[in-house]
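From the shared-data thread, chain only:
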Amino acid sequence: MLKKLLTPMLAVCLFLTGCASVPMASQEEDAKLKTFQKPADNKSGIYVYRNSFAGQALKKNIYINGNLIGESANKVYFYKEVAPGEQKLSTESEFSENDLTVKTEGGKNYFFEQYIKMGVFVGGAGLKAVSDTEGMKNVQECKLAK
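Structure, as tokens:
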């Protein structure tokens, strides 16, 4: 009796915790960006990645300076080059966007993690700056999204 009850419940749980998918870039583009070449002196390189167990079925929009760079899923990253200076990174969350404002310099790469957090109705998202070492390690475990 217990097996008859547990099997369908387990199947439903696995279905509900499925992975989200987003459009992906080519393997060549992904490999090139994982060499972490420095951008030109008049550009700042921004890597935003999501590499977390929580909220794997959720997709969340990511913006840089108000421009949509893409919709994230687990184990994906984005790369954009921007003019140096103040940058506003934003991510879609439960009720409104969560913002992170940072100052960047030309000729440097910056790494930011998008993380999923518990929400009232659905999971929310936030962004945090991480070290180059941590960022490069985690980006290596992700794939480039379009």
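The chain has one domain: 19-144.
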